[in-house]
Specification:
There is one protein chain. The protein is of the alpha/beta class and 419 residues long. It is 45% helix and 13% strand. It has 16 helices and 15 strands. It has a 7-stranded mixed sheet, with helices on both faces. The chain has a 4-stranded antiparallel sheet with strand order 11-12-15-14. A two-stranded parallel ribbon has the order 1-13. Bound molecules: pyridoxal-5'-phosphate.
Length: 419
């Protein structure tokens, strides 16, 4: 078979079958995992081009390899669009993931042993912000802030810890905190103690782009994000700043600091994501994501399910399952059999281990991308409540199979990736 013409189905039937099965899984179920989305056909095309072959290191105009003319064009397009979309003076689109973007920020501003203040993992923080098993937790002296009894960020505790420990870097943002963060309050504290302020907007970058969420770019020294969550694009990370003078420091932290060559097909797809995010269609999508997350939260609250903070300002919300006597692991298993994919998630002061947990994180980014509106998300909230109630009544399996049938009817009206 010819290297340049043979199709995947013939070259590798096993991988082909798994890929087809995954596409079918995405078509036939409802994706509620907050860190997932559904990319455009255009994104898939950008990812699958022979640009994947090109190796470059460094930055446009200063590469370490020849033949970089088109690679430079692609990366400059991505950088210019990121800067325009977010009103930033600086953008770096090379980070392979959000964690890599954060690692580069650590390298740029702190040294091993320095103090870093971030949100506790159990309060909704991210592994790459200093969790014990992560490099960030092993190499830096991590101090943390959390949430109050009502689930809202404890700004006073954050400020007191900052004053007591004088961190060099303060991180705002997380992966399971559902509310808008008051960046100005972080700014005041960072200025008081002379810290760099990093806002990690991985989960709501699309809402920021569409101006339906407070904008961290003018306030933070550095902003990190991913293109694949709420921004509805390729898997990858990027870095922004309103401080153009940080460009050299941040660029050299990404390359040669923590990365080598650029994944150019991913950079091409990032350029596509930024372009798509400038459209009125995307702004309507982002408003829909927020309306839908709020409708989902409100439906659950109406059904007496405990939602942390009682609602959300972002694409995600967290259900506390302790009042129902259920675990996140058990609930996400039964929901998956009902055609609703969600992830177990720790809640503040969770008595269960990270593999079990007492929470469930739900998100609206992917469902909204396939066209669901408030009616569909209200229905989804009722299904989630039905399944959780049935679990407490010992009738989980019949409820899951009933919901599975209804989910299939709903998704058939919202097709994705036509063959
Ligand atoms: C998802 C996420 C990231 C990025 O994670 P990767 O899996 O490395 O792309 C970074 N920060 C936060 C807050 C996140 O939620």
């Amino acid at each position: 078979m010819d290297h340049f013409t043979a199709r995947l189905a013939d070259v590798d039937p096993e991988v082909y079958a798994a890929l087809e099965a995954e596409t079918a899984r995405q078509r036939n179920g409802i994706e509620l995992i907050a860190s997932e989305n559904l990319v455009s056909r255009a994104t898939l095309e950008a990812l699958g081009s022979p640009m994947v072959n090109k190796t470059v290191e460094g930055y446009p105009g200063g590469r370490y390899y020849g033949g970089a003319e088109h690679a430079d064009r692609i990366e400059l397009l991505a950088v210019e669009r990121a800067m325009e979309l977010f009103g930033a003076a600086y953008a770096n689109v090379q980070p392979h993931s959000g964690s890599q973007a954060n690692l580069a920020v650590f390298l740029a501003f702190v040294k091993p042993g320095d103090t870093v203040l971030s949100m506790d993992l159990s309060a909704g923080g991210h592994l790459s912000h200093g969790a014990a098993p992560n490099l960030s937790g092993k190499w830096f002296d991590i101090v943390s802030y959390g949430v109050n009894a009502d689930g809202f960020l404890d700004y006073e505790g954050m400020a007191a810890t900052a004053r007591a420990t004088s961190p060099k870097l303060i991180i705002a943002g997380g992966s399971a905190y559902p509310r808008a963060i008051d960046f100005e309050r972080f700014r005041v504290v960072a200025d008081d103690v002379g810290a760099i302020l990093l806002v990690d907007m991985a989960h709501w970058a699309g809402l920021v782009a569409a101006r339906v969420h407070p904008d961290p770019v003018p306030v933070a020294d550095v902003v990190t994000a991913t293109t694949y969550k709420n921004l509805r694009g390729v898997r990858g990370g990027f870095i922004l700043s309103h401080r153009a003078e940080l460009a050299r420091k941040l660029n050299s932290a990404v390359f040669p600091g923590v990365q080598g060559s650029v994944i150019l097909n991913a950079v091409a797809a990032k350029a596509v994501a930024f372009r798509e995010a400038m459209t009125p269609e995307f702004r309507a999508y982002a408003r829909g994501v927020l309306d839908n997350a709020r409708a989902l939260a409100a439906t659950l609250v109406d059904r007496d399910i405990t939602v942390l903070t009682g609602g959300t300002d972002t694409p995600l919300l967290v259900v506390d399952l302790r009042p129902l006597g259920l675990t996140g692991a058990a609930a996400s298993d039964v929901l998956e059999r009902a055609g609703l994919t969600a992830n177990k998630n720790g809640v503040p002061d969770d008595p269960e281990s990270p593999r079990v947990t007492s929470g469930l994180r739900l998100g609206s980014s992917a469902g909204t991308a396939r066209g669901f509106g408030v009616d569909e998300f209200t229905q989804i909230g009722d299904w989630v409540a039905d399944v959780l109630e049935a679990m407490t009544a010992g009738t989980a399996e019949p409820a899951a199979s009933r919901v599975r049938g209804e989910v299939e009817t709903m998704v058939s009206a919202f097709p994705i990736y036509p063959a």
